[in-house]
Amino acid sequence: MTRKKFVITPAEIKKIESLAAKGMNEEDIAWYLGITPSTLSRKKKEYEQIEQAIKLGKARGKGFVVGKLFAKIKEGNLSAIIFYLKTQCKWSEHVTVNEGDKTSFLSLTPEQQIIFIKNLSVQIRSKLLADAIKELKAERKG
Known about the structure:
By secondary structure, this protein is mainly alpha-helical. It contains 6 helices and 2 strands; from the N terminus they run αααααββα.
């Protein structure tokens, strides 16, 4: 049985972008489209739009998730704040209470935790403000 020829159309490009935005890897995108991963790889070399759609889709997907994360951070969601600090600021659950003494956040007294979180909130607000200013400047240039 002969396989149906895979034709690159604007609709296929949009579908590829959408799938990449949802976090699908290239192998899964290929199978979803009804082609083999090697066919997708070959088509990427023939049609630059495929590679661009994958890159754009991934960027849009990340942008969506980051937007949701920052919304949670602005709401004061402690889990979102901690996630951001760990992944973007190289923060650790081990904090220095006394000089040279690394202690787990959970082992701090409630009073120490409150002080730590209040100080952290100032740092986060400063970081969010700096990021927002940087983003606005970039938009004005663009």
